[in-house]
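user: can you give me the structure for this one chain? tokens are fine.
assistant: on it. calling the predictor now.
[tool input]
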Amino acid sequence: MSVERPTAVVVDDATVIRESVPILMTGLDVVGRYAGVEQMLDERPDSEVVILDLHLSNASQPDVRQGIAAVRAVVAAGYRVCVFTQEERRFVLAACLAAGASGVVAKSAGTAETQEAFAAVAAGEVVMPQALIGLVEVLVRRNNLTILSERQRQVLSGRARGFTYAELGEQLFLSESTLRGYWATVTENVSEYLQQATPAEIEHALGIGPGDLLDMWPVPPEASDAVEKDEARWWQLRQKRRRRRR
């Protein structure tokens, strides 16, 4: 009896990534591969998850939409997005969830772990990397994120410290399935919170400078095209600066 595989689309400017995902991740049915979101949105493939890189601009396509603007555009088109990136700054990763992404996966993660994360997002779950889990715990500790129950906070604390469900189960005397249920609720609540939070609220909660997040935190969906273009130009400028430092 065959198992139905979740359908996926890969959007990445690196040819090797686009070509390797279907080969390495046989648990996915890759129905489309694109170097940028514009072509994907023009063709509108039927897919359960869009695997999206944050940095899509290069010499051959310098003006493509990328970063938070790309996440927001794909989400607005009705897709579940899992960001697949080398980006490590947790504020940027949080901004991806705030823009509507359902998951963030590091390109440094193993193949099996990555495929499992993509499938989870395709199934409607929220996937957060370890760095982002630690950020969420800080928000909870500082009483900025108060929507979690005591048990959910315990599960979050354990996940932030890298405990497995089995290890947490021994500590809290709960089954793994129960813990997974708690964690699913935590991630959903966190995702909703980040989508409603303003840059000022996040900055205040984390003790960072006022205005530091304005250039990366997603603007409301009703924002004008001009704001989106400014956002895309900002990402291109960041990439140029990074190349100069290398």
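assistant: here you go. Residues 1-127 form a domain with the Rossmann fold fold (CATH 3.40.50.2300). The beta strands are 7-11, 29-34, 49-52, 81-85, 103-106.
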